[in-house]
Specification:
It is built from one helix and nine strands. With 174 residues, the protein is mainly β. The protein folds into two domains: 1-28; 31-172, AOC barrel-like (Beta Barrel), CATH 2.40.350.10. Strands 1-3-4-5-6-7-8-9 form an eight-stranded antiparallel β-barrel. The longest helix has 23 residues, at 3-25. The two termini are 35 Å apart.
Amino acid sequence: MNARRLTSIAGVALAVSALGATQLAAGATPARTVRVSAQLKVASTVNGLGGAPQSCLAGICKIKNRGTGRMTHFGKVTFTSVITADDNQPPCGTSSQWVNRIIRTIHTSRGILVLHEAGLQCPEPGVGPRVEAVWTVDGAESTGIFAGAQGGGYDIAYPVQDTAAPHGTITLAP
């Protein structure tokens, strides 16, 4: 990198810092980052193809579930999930699936948090299927304290046990 480019980058960084300091001095609320951890329990599951717990058409499975749980900083929650999975090319052996999309909507007393997830469902000996997914916050669809939020994390779910456990970091909008 040449000196001129470094000077430009440093100038932009200084301007952004000054803008942030000006906003704080003017009374703007700074963004707040929180680590979240949830323990969710599925109460009921239906698929989009007739109501059975999981049924697939041409290898594409659509599952909807709902339940309750707890989330750090936000207490008791309810949630719904819409899951799209593909078992046409099992990623980790027989009975595995690509979990192409999970939209998890978590209702708290302070707003609705919408997460978009994707991952894999692989068999785990002695336990059954285990879903490992990553998630990101949809700040545009979230409401209340979560409106405009950003963040991400991971989720471990055990479908046979009807549990999910998203963990990560959320930066709440100022």
